[in-house]
Amino acid sequence: MPFVNIKVTGGAEAPTAEQKAELISGVTELLQRVLNKNPATTVVLIEELSTDNWGIGGESVTVRRRKQ
Fold first, then answer.
1. Who's near 1: CB < 8 A, 6+ residues apart?
2. Half-sphere exposure (CA, 13 Å, Cβ side) for 8?
3. What DSSP string runs through 5-21?
4. Can 2 be counted among the known catalytic residues?
5. Predicted model pTM
6. DSSP secondary-structure letter at 4?
7. C-alpha distances in angstroms, 3 versus 26, 33, 34, 40, 52?
8. CB 50 within 8 A of CB 14
9. Domains in the chain, start-ordered, CATH in brackets?
10. Alpha-carbon Rg of the chain, whole angstroms?
11. Reduced to 3 states, what is the DSSP secondary structure of residue 58?
12. Where is the active site (predicted)?
């Protein structure tokens, strides 16, 4: 049973329900096509993280976005 965990930032730039559905469908299809995995047992989890809890280059994403 494949388990895929996708992490994205939440808030204003969070993916829509439609985008999440497309990610789940697309990842499931990719695992079936490339690895011959059974779609019925493929699990895809999408986690939305606060930009305060995600850092790049020593700064939170919140701080980096404010600077842009």
1. 41, 42, 43
2. 13
3. EEEEE-GGGPPPHHHHH
4. yes
5. 0.83
6. E
7. 14, 16, 15, 12, 26
8. no
9. 1-65 (3.30.429.10)
10. 15
11. coil
12. 2
- Over its length of 68 residues, how does the chain's per-residue pLDDT go in tens digits? 999 999 998 888 899 999 999 999 999 999 999 999 999 999 999 999 999 998 999 999 999 989 98
Question: Whole-angstrom Cα distance, residue 10 to residue 60?
Answer: 13
- For residues 28 and 38, is the Cβ–Cβ distance under 8 A? no
List 2, 4, 6, 60, catalytic entry: 2
For the record, the structure tokens of 49 come out as 């993280």
